[in-house]
């Protein structure tokens, strides 16, 4: 086990009706709020009204900025930063899924920075401070309600999709009511489930052998998603299954599953380029890439893929033919993604081969990617090609 | 799953040589430190000198208060409070195991309280504020490096052992170097392992059925302790196993394994009375009580005990005779405690039956104990008697 630091300062407020507390929670941190959200979904399902009422009851002043789209763009982030400066906002409330939260985090870190916020995403500046961000989560997926990361797209300057991490970006609170996820469309629910699994897999696949405890915690998280996701697709209003799924999303990405090891993140880098170029849902890029990534890298540490097959997918171990066991685990991964309605090839997502070189080029712009196996541009091209 | 709140704000700094950072970590929170520790162990193994050097290098002023004993007493806590007031201490550093940390937490909450600190333990006052506490952990066991709880004994006023919980008591940082545990005697290592397991078991045994994710995380933690503890007893300098064991102690008690459910804690209440009356090591009281507690309560929810047997102890499930499966899991628990050198009866710990009524009386002083099954005085007496 390698040396590590771990801290999860976010106050998770989980369960039925918890969104009604948002006003009193905000009072602990600020007085003037940028209320940030996406499209009309929260207005249709009544969440918007409940938030407004709670803030009014607590005497919180707020300015609204809706319109965040999937793969949130730096354009709206810049707009949010301007508003916060002009209106002297001291708190940002993000009500939505990962896109809204990531957009809010990017605004939060840009307000006190004199130059352009995109500098942070290009690695040209360190984050000095950030406004506190509070979350009301409506989509279990990205784990952004717990993570120190924001992922933003710059569509005007070449379809770049980049991530920035800093502990200053961890939300001060995250309100999580599983009932708010009842109305999620099946596709979005499944894409979220794949995203959650991917956050565990990016950590599980490591070259560090002596971290059996965290491996077990990863396996427990994966098995829970694997069990709950089909249940919620069948019964969207199954509270217990929705609640389990929502909480796995947080644990998958608050850092606890990555302690003491080098994580991978190659699949995310590969997937981000697909989203940037084709605006495909994040979870769909992962259901396409992960099976191909596995096939490409598994010989780097066959033992780990055997362990994955046995402990996560309950594959009966073929002790004399470990590769067969490993391949069976990989096969089940792909079949599972397909079974929950997610694409497992670029063509299934309506994407051709013409962008492959461009994506591989951008993916490795800052060097090889991936902690489990370093992927150069050629490796990325092969994985993309195998995913056609 | 029930509604819950979860937050783990402690900064865990884990790994080799991490104690050398203590001075720079303290600088973030205070300038004048009460350096609190136990007996001479940290002086013998060089930790004391490394801490002093690090604080000196960082320009930290400090006053020492050593002498904390197992089952820390409120007498020394009162002394620490006086020192902090007189010397205007603004930070407490606890270097040791759970007793030292608990003593430090009790001092931290008593400094600004005008009356006697024992009031908090009698439930006669709420904790208004507390000095920040930092930890250098030397014994993986109580989880106090992560928990919001302090357990203190009042030996002068009737051998009372009481716990107080408040989020204000969570340490601001906990430095955890597994190498510092190499020199722990086997008995203390094993007692610590039992304590860690008990913190998971107190949460695992719940009447809440819909919390499969957290159940899996509990099972993962238990299996890790079960595997690692014999390894470290055999090879005290096995870094990987010491590290795993140390980290299970934190996860077992930082709250993450108890979300969404009513926890039990009956065994702890029963065990505390044994410690208070006979000054027996906490872990030894648990290895005695837990098997008897299980036998006494398992029919309350047989299914959960079957799950425990199968998922934790890999008992082959006897589908037509679930009780046999459950009993086998309980049997293995007891055998395991014995196999790591811990007592499984009062007589093995040199304790007779004469204190049973007194212990049962004190244990239920504030009413029945236990969330899985409510134990009245008569129930406690039976469990103590069965443990003779």
TrEMBL record, chains A, B:
PROSITE patterns: ADH_IRON_2. GO terms for cellular component: cytosol. It comes from the Bacteria. Keywords: Oxidoreductase. CDD domains: BDH. Residues 9-178 form the Alcohol dehydrogenase iron-type/glycerol dehydrogenase GldA domain. One of its GO terms (molecular function) is alcohol dehydrogenase (NADP+) activity. InterPro entries: ADH_Fe/GldA, ADH_Fe_C, ADH_Fe_CS, BDH-like. Pfam families: ADH_Fe_C, Fe-ADH. Residues 189-387 form the Fe-containing alcohol dehydrogenase-like C-terminal domain. Its EC number is 1.1.1.-. PANTHER family: ALCOHOL DEHYDROGENASE YQHD. This is NADH-dependent butanol dehydrogenase A.
